[in-house]
Amino acid sequence: MDIVNQTGNLGAGPSQNWGSLVNNANSGSQTMAGQNQQYNQNMQQEQFKYQKARDTISDKQWQQKFDEDVRQYGLNYGLQQLQLNNDEAYRKAQLALSQDDNDRQWASLDAQLSGTADQAKAVSGDVAGNILAQSLQKVVGTDPVSGKPVYGTISDPTAREKAFIDAWNTSGVAPGADTVTMLSKAGYTAQEIANLKSKYPVAFNSGGPSGGNGSPANVSVPLRYQEMLSASNSKYGLPDGLLAAVANKESSFNPSAKNSKSGAAGMFQFMPATAKGYGIDPMDPRQSADAAGKMLSGLAAKYDGDYSKALAAYNWGGGNVDKAIKVYGANWLSHAPAETQKYVSEILG
């Protein structure tokens, strides 16, 4: 199936909702709640597209006419009228929609699949390959007759690597043969596949994803963060995969996570005062990972390499751990809060 041709009717390039594409490919059926959620998502996307197109229209008169056309007859009609009356503004609107669409669709699919692990690992290599091929399309010009955008395939190596990372993290394709199928289907060369396999072996490990470098908790690490976490791990001499396990436990690798009650923020859930003490922006994953590595290394040194105590101190506070050790000795952990006991157990496995 030619996914690029199975798009919406905006003429704005690949604009099909990729979450729906995956659901359709897997022959899933939606409940009423699911249908309502899909409807709301479609409405949000329509509003987003309208605003994106409107922002490209600099002339106030044409902007007002576009608003009125969309209000009365919908976005498609508004774009059609814009094409008839102001071709330059129409082309700018189409280009803006096309350039932004791929990132938005991956983010939408990522949100839909979050928390649904069974769905996240149910996409075939063929389907994922079609989605990846679609994400590599970009506007390279305009057809002189129809005025519609002409698409070509992205060739920049960095952009293609990023597209692969986004696809593997989001589409849910299984590691191993399905990943190779996905890349081949999307038009990656044998050399490109070999380079990616060397750099991201976890995606090609048919034994399944692991925490990367023997993570204590054997967690699945998003490719985009593997190199960063591994570097911080090595920099501070921590056990392989420890930071990955902590990041997974703290925020499920979400750099934008925030606890509205405690104020903890970022991938490693730093409290405001702690983040200030380390001089970092807790929402920056690299700064946060470096600070977490430094903190855990310091705690491990304090407790003579005992990572149970170091992790408990990270979660519960060093002062509380010190008091528990002083009062209960070797049985200190059994007197820690249940949350801390679970925290240590799940990270160390």
Task: Describe this structure as you would to a colleague.
With 349 residues, this protein is mainly alpha-helical. The chain has two domains: 202 residues, no CATH class; 126 residues, Lysozyme, CATH 1.10.530.10. It has 17 helices and two strands. Strands 1-2 form a two-stranded antiparallel sheet. α3 packs antiparallel against α4, α5 crosses α8 and α7 crosses α8. The chain is elongated. It starts with 17 loop residues before the first helix and ends with a helix. The N terminus is likely disordered.
Q: Kindly state the percentage of residues in helix.
A: 55-70%
In quaternary terms, these chains amount to single chain
Number of helices: 17
Number of domain modules: 2
- What gross morphology would you assign? elongated
Largest sheet: 2 strands, antiparallel
Spans of at least 5 consecutive residues whose pLDDT stays below 50 are 1-33, 102-121, 207-215
- Strand arrangement within the widest β-sheet reads 1-2
Series of secondary-structure elements, N-terminal to C-terminal: HHHHHHHEEHHHHHHHHHH
Structural class: mainly alpha
Number of strands: 2
Strand-residue fraction? under 5%
Please give the alpha-carbon distance between the first and last residues.
44 Å
Q: Any idea what the radius of gyration is? A: 24 Å
Mean pLDDT, all residues: 75
Region (Disordered): 1-33
Pfam family, one: SLT
Keywords: Coiled coil
InterPro entries: Lysozyme-like_dom_sf, Transglycosylase_SLT_dom_1
